[in-house]
Amino acid sequence: MHCFIFLVGLTSLLCSLLAATVRRSFGSRGRRGLRVLSSCSSISSPGWRRGSVTPRITTIHCPGCQHDIDLGERGISMLFRNFTLESIVERYRQAARAAVAIMCNICKPPQVQEATKSCMDCKASYCNECFKLHHPWGTPKAQHEYVGPTTNFRPKVLMCPEHEMEKVNMYCEVCRRPVCHLCKLGGSHANHKVTSMSSAYKILKEKLAKSIHFLISKEDQVRTQITDLEHLINQTEENGQLAEREANEHFERLFETLQERKSEMLRSIEQSRNRRLNHLKGQVEEYQGMLENSGLVGYAQEVLKETDQSCFVQTAKQLHVRIQKATESLRTFHPAADPCFDEFVLDTSKEETLLKEMCFGGVPDPPLIDLSHSRVYNEASISWRLSDDHLPTDHHVVEYRRLGAPSPSPSQEDVDDSSVWRATDRVYGPSAVVCDLEPNTLYAFRVRSCRNSMFSPYSPEVTLHTPPAPAFGFLFSDKCGFSAERLALNKRRDTVESVAGMAFLLAAERVQTGSYIGLDYIIGDTGISQGRHYWSFKVEPYSYLVKVGVASDSKLLEWFHNPRDTSSPRYDHDSGHDSGSEDTCYELSQPFTLLTLGMGKLFIPKSSSLSSVSSANASSAADPGNRVLPMPQRLGICLDYEACRVYFFDADTMRCLYERQVDCSGTMYPAFGLMGSGKVQLEEFIAAKKLTF
Per the database record, which ranges form the COS domain (predicted)? Predict the structure, then answer.
């Protein structure tokens, strides 16, 4: 029952899609029904006339493949008619107007009968009597194809639009369209792969049936997804209403705070105004009293006329005090209050700026850490990118935490430290440098953006493994064994390049016999006499043969300056561009401990000793049949002087590829050997190359 309901819904959907397709298609309804073009349909280009010198270019938007199609000069005539789609559309239209009967095209009015059959060859509809009359037994018309009553008549076979007289009988797998034999022999499909129409029919029908069956079988999944979408719609509506309420609450709190501050400030202004007015009014009253005492002078003059000394002294003492106070107030006049209210002037420019910059566009999109530009060496360089349609951000914050060193039993301190995220200072560019990282440790990094005090979600975490030892800094040395004829250093001495010149070609015979005559060596300008050190570099994929490793200074002079019997089989310890297995069969008299790379591959010796870090690849690397690995983009070397061991790493993943014992009797130098064309570039220190803006 459910499947039936689903099929009814699917049928309705198909009907609506077909109707929409027909509306978009450039079809034409003629006297006998609807004409639909397959895949691409068109009308003539506007403004073009027959016989015009200007070629006609007809471009339409195909409703099927959703691409713009250039039909060329022939335009619509180059397209197949989609008879299947026409039949489906006509069938659904007839079902929609089932109440309107199809009448016989032969009967004469007024006795026109309802048609019961339609002949696809005659392209007409007949009632039973007219059909028997026009298709009698024993005549060729009796073999005509007839169907139920319809107004859509299509030909019995599909004709080629390029060769109008040829039937299509093959299917082009390149263009995915039916073709005729002339199209395959000398037409536009001459070099295309074609198959028989029956084979294409069977394959496409099976695919379509499987697709429909798969769609029907996913009815429960579709219903579940519809339920999930409805739940998301309800959740979106609820969250939107919640966001509106929270925004209203935030602004109401802002309004209340502003109203409180406004009331408080107005109250303070009113109190200060009343206090000042009282002081000034009191001073006015005091001076008005002085004016009222203008008869004081006359009174004093009358007192001066008193001749009785005792009476004069009795009255003049009080009178003198009053006159002295009035005189002093006139000499030192000061207002009792300041009429200026400068202390109540507010500077709200910062607050206005903050209010104007309030972000109502939602939180910023999270950035995405770009692993192709992020790496660790002496420090970690983390780069990220933002979405294409992101708004400008104020700054970024990089956070990192230690996930622990690859030890069997990490300490409790390591476990506790792994849950603590540390943040860098604000970063105003698309990258940042993280310092003070421990060696041989796995770190997780994440980034988030900030705009108008609103932080984005964190980016997905990425993990980077720090080198197994502190980064060792050196440059190439051109003093010991350096062949200036075949090796070229750049000005910074961090890149060496070997070019296969005439000397290499002349020595080709010796190269084929396995002599090292074409191998040129170069070492670093800084040596190691203690501790554990790590350095990394890049070998160009086109390099013919490159050997990398370490060399001992106690044997370098003897190796480069003492003559060697190059024809001796004892000297032939490497066979040129080989598997690198001879690197393990070195003699103690040789100063080099090397690993072979060449032509985009890394050659692991048969008797390699793999560390626990690369235990996953131990079986394949130790197997003599699987000793060739793809060359890493960056290769790292770690020398443990006290342990007398050298390790070779994939510098991007910090996976140990190969390790071996080495004689550290003297000072050890990074060593490189190049044969033929090749290039080695040393890793640059991150702090010297990356800056945080």
Answer: 304-361
> For 463-497, how does the pLDDT look when each residue is reduced to its tens digit (9 = 90+)?
999 999 999 999 998 887 778 888 889 888 999 99
User: Three-state SS across 443-502?
Assistant: EEEEEEEEECCEECCCCCCEEEECCCCCECCCCEECCCCCCCCCEEECCCCCEEEECCCH
658: which residues sit within 8 A by CB, 6+ positions away?
595, 604, 605, 608, 609, 610, 621, 647, 648
Joined tokens for residue 441: 């440790």
178 preceded by cis ω (within 30°)? no
Confidence of residue 312 (pLDDT cuts 50, 70, 90): confident
Residue 201 in tokens: 């029919």
Single pTM value for the model: 0.47
Please spell the DSSP secondary structure of 307-360, one letter per residue: --HHHHHHHHHHHHHHHHHHHHHHHS---SS----GGG----HHHHHHHHT---
**CA nearest to 88, candidates 168, 9, 51, 33:** 33
Per-residue pLDDT at 624 exceeds 60? no
Angle between helices 83-96 and 2-24 (to 10 degrees): 110
**Residue range 419-443: average pLDDT?**
89
DSSP of 170-217, one letter per residue? EEETTTTEEE-HHHHHHSTTTTS-EEEHHHHHHHHHHHHHHHHHHHHH
